[in-house]
Write a structure and sequence with these properties.
Helix content is 61%, strand content 0%. With 527 residues, it is mostly helical.
């Protein structure tokens, strides 16, 4: 089997594990690590193999359908070094969030060195992901070294002759971060903990390790959608509660793995007064608002105003809002905050999946003369665009972590770049679906950018990058005079010396004029 065939096979398994029904089980004896290491060795340690090898290891660690012992048994064949530790969210985005392949037909091996993420002032691709200037290949190699280091140390602790409580203490030292706790909970087995004598079960070290073992919780599709609506009713994700974040993770994952038919049918049975796309847009905004509050900042007024009408009088709180409301554990708070970006990415995935259905429904009503349909269509796009912009704004806050980060995997640079790239993709999809109203949508986006930047000049580069990206995806939009003049006004107002303006600024010093455009002037004199 050629490497591309192997990569294609694994890609299907990866898709199945992440996006198919969770009740269907894989064959736990599947071994993708052995051929992955074989191709890496046969290629002379060709780094282009690292992305898929990294994703393979990620699957064996995070999916209970696969046997993690296959990974543990192959650790002696690993030959990677961990120069800096990746945080959980950074590792998640590296292995789960899609990169800029040429659609699905391109294999991961072809997506190893470049990603379309944002554009600088000259419209060139930006390939740097973090403050240390590491590209994706370096991060993949580093991540494999991190896996090798962690699980090798784990095996040494478990196989030692130390007392069981001494092993527990050593394991606690192995889990300073969320990613370590997640990995340890995956490999800890009940047999190891059950060897502890009953009179030692109350020991703090034993209790801590036992608490790490996560039970695979399940949630129905109806409960998933209902809880999301309950969160929207509350209008906040207060205190970054572990209970709220965990249930939202379960809910969004369940929806992602359910068919659209079942989701729409179940959602309609809840008799919600808003569409599923509007619900997801509002949830995405709440996540953005929670993230930005972490930095003691606030959303621009124009964004806040779009969602002000969603606020309701105080309603009864669901159970998750009445438990663990005070996070006294600083580590738990940081872990929950880190999970917010992963949770938001899942919500953005849902928005990307369901936006086409909503747009097509609006097109069916496009010929209607009833004003309510036109108004609802405008409100839908206003809400969607405001939600997506709020995600870009919250991702900008990650620069604070990058600037303050002196070590680790380079802060959240990778998280920000993948986050922004996916939001750009959703914008492009909306524009492509609405060809007839594309210019109007562009004008709304430009007006939103003007309103936000008038209030806060920090966001000028954010919108310049967004405009660059969308124009690069669809250069023909510059043929529309309305869009062209709107973009020119934005540049002239906020960054007149920006080189991008030369891309569409016409030379009017020697231009042919259309006489019919000025006929009314002559008519006024002759009358």
């Amino acid at each position: 089997m050629h490497f591309n065939e192997f990569a294609c096979t694994f890609d299907k398994v990866f898709e199945f594990l992440n996006y198919k029904n969770i009740n269907v089980q894989c064959d736990s004896s599947l071994d993708f690590i052995t051929p992955g290491l074989y191709y890496y060795s046969k290629s002379g340690s060709n780094k282009s193999v690292l992305p898929i090898l990294s994703k393979i290891c990620w699957c064996y660690i995070h999916h209970h359908q696969l046997d993690i012992n296959i990974l543990l048994n192959k650790l002696p064949e690993f030959n990677f070094e961990c120069h800096s530790k990746l945080q959980y969210s950074e590792a998640w985005y590296l292995n789960v969030a899609p990169i800029n392949c040429n659609e699905k037909e391109d294999m991961p091996i072809n997506c190893n060195e470049k990603e379309e993420l944002a554009f600088n002032s000259k419209g060139k691709d930006t390939v740097t992901f973090n403050s240390q200037g590491k590209d994706t290949i370096t991060l993949y190699s580093n991540f494999l070294g991190q896996i090798q280091s962690f699980f090798t140390t784990y095996q040494k602790i478990i196989s030692s002759d130390c007392d069981i409580l001494a092993k527990c203490v050593d394991l606690i030292k192995l889990t300073p971060d969320e990613i370590d706790k997640t990995w340890l909970s995956r490999v800890l087995c009940a047999d190891f903990l059950n060897t502890c004598a009953n009179n030692r079960e109350s020991h703090p070290a034993y209790s801590y390790i036992k608490a790490l073992i996560k039970v695979n919780r399940t949630i129905s599709l109806a409960d998933s959608l209902k809880f999301i609506l309950q969160v929207l009713d509350q209008g906040s994700i207060e205190h970054v509660s572990t209970a709220i974040i965990t249930k939202l993770e379960l809910a969004t994952t369940k929806i992602l793995k359910s068919s659209k038919t079942n989701v729409y049918s179940t959602f309609n049975n809840l008799h919600s007064r808003i569409s599923i796309l509007t619900a997801l847009s509002y949830l995405n905004y709440l996540l953005s608002d929670t993230i930005i509050e972490h930095y003691m900042d606030k959303m621009p007024t124009s964004i806040f105003t779009n969602f002000k009408s969603f606020k309701l009088p105080p309603l009864a709180k669901p159970q998750e809002y009445t438990t663990n409301t005070n996070n006294t554990d600083a580590y738990a708070y940081v872990a929950n905050y880190e999970k917010l970006f992963i949770l938001q990415y899942r919500v953005l995935q849902l928005i990307e999946q369901y936006v086409e259905n909503e747009v097509k429904y609006m097109e069916m009503k496009n010929n209607s003369s009833i004003k309510i349909y036109k108004k609802s269509r405008a409100v839908l796009y206003e809400t969607l665009f405001a939600s997506l912009i709020s995600s870009l704004i919250s991702a900008e806050q990650l620069d604070n972590d990058n600037n303050d980060n002196n070590g680790g995997g380079g802060g959240f640079g990778l998280v920000k770049s993948r986050h922004a790239y996916f939001i750009y993709t959703i914008f492009a999809k909306v524009f492509s679906l609405q060809r007839e109203e594309r210019a109007n949508l562009w004008v709304f986006l430009i007006n939103s950018a003007n309103d936000i930047c008038y209030g806060d000049l920090r966001y000028i580069p954010l919108f310049i990058n967004l405009f660059h990206n969308q124009i690069n995806k669809d250069p023909r939009i510059m043929d529309d005079n309305l869009v062209r003049s709107g973009l020119q006004f934005f540049i002239d107002t906020f960054k007149p010396n920006h080189e991008w303006s030369k891309m569409f600024t016409e030379d009017i010093s020697n231009q042919t004029l259309n006489a019919t455009s000025f006929r009314h002037i002559y008519d006024s004199y002759t009358s």
